[in-house]
Design brief:
single chain, alpha/beta, eight-stranded parallel barrel, 38% helix, binds ligand G3I, GH10_dom, polysaccharide degradation
């Protein structure tokens, strides 16, 4: 097939989330795919606090260094995901040496040290940061994370200020899932406006894009794109994938329904996708890209949350033992030609 990144040159960047095996070259089959199709790389896990800064003062930079080297090799931009999140952050971060919760000042100081170490090391090498990830609930209220409990929304402001100070040339984003939900979109925009009003830079808002076959609707996604752009912020789709399996979670992020059987009865396509579901997947990708293309002036990047189906987080979420089909390459790293062609056709029309 033709190359995704070449087809979309001058329209938007085409990205993929990668892990340690792609970064260090163990996954030899991923390399030619990344090289041919992608000009933006996001670390799926290895820049998160627990991975890059597992113990107080101890940094584990090597996997991320390798990702940066890979990006240089294939001439891709690097997205820094993510500096501050409530998830994959070890408990010690919030505590003193006696296990007591840190004061606001002490916690923010620790956060700033982290940003200084991480963004400092990759200064000039990261194109843009998901500075803060998932700080809101779906209803638009601030998420009651340990960050928020201790520091209120100041943790967000201070994170943006610090990142800009450490790497002034990097773009700065707020990133969240279910960003099509009006309350959540509005809350993120409100936050971004507040930051700007206080002279704190924020360049864009990331809509993750973990979608289903039928929901959310194109209309509701389009409304969110327009709102974000009208407020003066760049839009990017940062974690795109499409889940074709039954899913007990009222779309991503809510607690798992405990009554949902943890057996394999919902793993309904383990022998392969039926033709009519594959056809739906093709048309879903096509219509999503038509929407993205329609708003090319507002959108700067589309990143897929993984390279191939076998490596997708959706094989393990919301429960292990799923056989998921969310991406553009199958579990054997083969191109899904019908989807890729449809997506490329959109770029060329
Ligand atoms: O690395 C350990 C390994 O040593 C251990 O043996 C294994 C056993 O469970 O766990 C491994 O860590 C897992 C890690 O992925 C690396 O594979 C964690 O358990 C697992 O929780 C973690 O999941 C990641 C998840 O974020 C964490 O919340 C997914 O891979 C990653 O795709 C997902 O990405 C997030 C974005 O960052 C933010 N938006 C939502 C998106 C999907 O949840």
């Amino acid at each position: 097939s033709q190359s995704l990144k070449k087809s979309y040159e001058g329209i938007f960047d085409i990205g993929a989330a990668v892990g340690v095996r792609e970064a260090n070259g163990t996954d030899t089959k991923a390399f030619p795919i990344l090289d041919k199709h992608f000009n933006s790389l996001t670390p799926e896990n290895l820049m998160k606090w627990g991975s890059i800064h597992p113990r107080l003062g101890q940094y584990n930079f090597e996997p991320m260094d390798r990702l940066v080297a890979l990006a240089e090799k294939i001439d891709a931009r690097v997205i820094g995901h993510t500096l501050v999140w409530h998830n994959q952050t070890p408990d010690w971060v919030y505590e003193d040496e006696n296990g007591e919760r840190l004061s606001k000042d002490a916690l923010l100081h620790r956060m700033e040290e982290h940003i200084e170490a991480v963004a400092g090391r990759y200064k000039g090498k990261v194109f843009g940061y998901d500075v803060v990830n998932e700080a809101f609930f779906d209803d638009g209220q601030y998420r009651t994370s340990k960050w928020y409990e201790t520091a209120g929304k100041d943790f967000i402001k201070r994170a943006f200020i610090k990142t800009q100070e450490v790497d002034p040339d990097a773009e700065l984003y707020y990133n969240d899932y279910n960003m099509w939900k009006p309350e959540k979109t509005d809350a993120a925009i409100q936050l971004a406006k507040e930051l700007r009003k206080e002279g704190i830079r924020i360049d864009g808002i990331g809509m993750q894009g973990h979608y289903g076959l039928d929901s959310p609707s194109l209309e509701i996604i389009e409304t969110a794109i327009n709102k974000i752009a009208d407020a003066g912020f760049k839009v990017m789709f940062t974690e795109v994938d499409i889940d074709v399996l039954p899913n007990p979670v009222n779309r991503h992020g809510a607690d798992i329904d405990a009554t949902f059987p943890a057996d394999e009865s919902y793993n309904i396509y383990k022998e392969g996708l039926p033709d009519e579901i594959q056809a739906k997947l093709v048309s879903r990708y096509k219509e999503l890209f038509e929407l993205f293309k329609k708003h090319e002036e507002k959108i700067t990047r589309i990143t897929f949350w993984g390279v191939h189906d076998g490596g997708s987080w959706l094989n393990n979420w919301p429960m292990p033992g799923r056989t998921a089909y969310p991406l553009l390459f199958d579990k054997d790293y083969q191109e899904k030609k019908d989807i890729i062609q449809a997506v490329i056709d959109v770029a060329q029309n």
